[in-house]
């Protein structure tokens, strides 16, 4: 797609982009996922003070799809509030799903060396190693989650590790990282409390 085909300040930019993707043959579920990434990127640019990004819409257009559910900003806010009632490391791990747009498999596989705090920008940058395309990538975490991550690393995580050589960011009781199954267990608890039956780890990325 050529960028000049669209007016960057037009309020229905995301809707046009979504229709373009579908017109190119992308499935509605994949289109919805792509739009989530675009919205998160625009939010990140806006936080950095980029003038163009401030003029762009961040509301997702409704793309007709069969199964895929994309949580609204309100759903995510309710999720974040509800995680206060679940134990660590799952509360922070679940936070990272929407705040960084990561897969649950990527979250559980993070080590303490994969996250770096950039004081200059006042945010965490996570290095995701060997995702599906076999290339590492750096992912900025939305500023709203920075305090929770820093608090977890400094206070909660040390009490979870039995061996100081454990490098997993979200260690499990066996000494390995927590499992995707255990993540989904706590996610199920959260969605039952919120009465959001379609909310899953996968839908939050």
Notes on the protein architecture:
The structure is a single chain. By secondary structure, the chain is mainly alpha-helical. The chain is 43% helix and 7% strand. Strands 1-2-3 form a three-stranded antiparallel beta sheet, with no helix packed on it. Strand 2 and strand 3 form a beta hairpin. The radius of gyration is 18 Å and the shape is globular.
Which key terms come to mind for this protein?
single chain, 205 residues, mainly alpha, 3-stranded antiparallel β-sheet, 8 helices, 43% helix, disordered N terminus
List the helices and strands and how they pair.
Layout: H1 13-23, H2 28-47, H3 51-55, H4 73-82, H5 90-100, H6 104-108, E1 115-118, E2 123-128, E3 137-140, H7 146-156, H8 180-194
Antiparallel strand pairs: 1-2, 2-3
Class derived from helix and strand content: mainly alpha
Please state the average pLDDT score: 76
Numbering strands along the chain, what is their spatial order in the largest sheet? 1-2-3
Biggest β-sheet strands, sense, barrel: 3 strands, antiparallel
Q: State the helix count.
A: 8
What distance separates the N and C termini?
24 Å
Task: Classify the helix fraction into a percent range.
Answer: 40-55%
Radius of gyration: 18 Å
Number of strands: 3
Report the principal-axis shape.
Answer: globular
Instruction: Give the DSSP E fraction (strand runs of 2 or more residues).
Output: 5-15%
Quick gist of this model?
By secondary structure, the chain is mainly alpha-helical. The chain contains 8 helices and 3 strands; from the N terminus they run ααααααβββαα. Helix 1 packs antiparallel against helix 2 (28-47).
